[in-house]
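Moderator note: this is an archived Q&A kept for reference. The question asked for a predicted structure of one protein chain; the sequence and the answer are reproduced below.
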Amino acid sequence: MLYLVRDRVQRLATDADQALDRLVEVQGSRAGLWVSEPSSAGQAFRQRFEAGNIGPEAGSRWSAETDRVLWAGGWFPGRSLPTATWEGILRGIGTFEIHNAARDFLAEFGAVGVPHRDSGVSMPRRDFSLDPLLAVWDAEIIEDLAEQAGTDLYPVGMRDRRNTHLMMAADGAVYEGMDQVWLLAAAPDQAIERLARAIGPLAE
């Protein structure tokens, strides 16, 4: 029997084969969507952001600046990812059951994000990663935050160098927190706007 140990102990699997299957499944799901090297991801994001490629309807759903950030982070209109693998992994740990609001959100925005700035590089916004598997070992934390919020929450990602969970309620409200929880936005599009918002002067 294998256990995962960090700030708490959680059973990973009952035998070595099952443990390897789970580890490969989780890593494989991430590998197909994320660049492994943060520096490479940051450089690619910055290049796309500076290129300023956005669709013809930019500014109609969000601000034009939010469109620019989202396109640089991997989003585009009509984007629809399969969510079955994410759902299966999180359901498999016996805690997270997805609701329609989170499924729709992840189908459109799953794996979209802004990487953390590299040393010496000015990045005018907080990093975030819309990857539900970032919560795969944090079920107890999410449960505690949901209890504080007074509603069931499904993980949709993290922000601030993975120090803050992003979670969605069944009504589409998005919450964030780690030790304490607070409402980020009452609706998904509003949450996206706030996640993409600049926190300082834009880089030259």
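Archived answer notes: The chain is about 40% helix and 15% strand.
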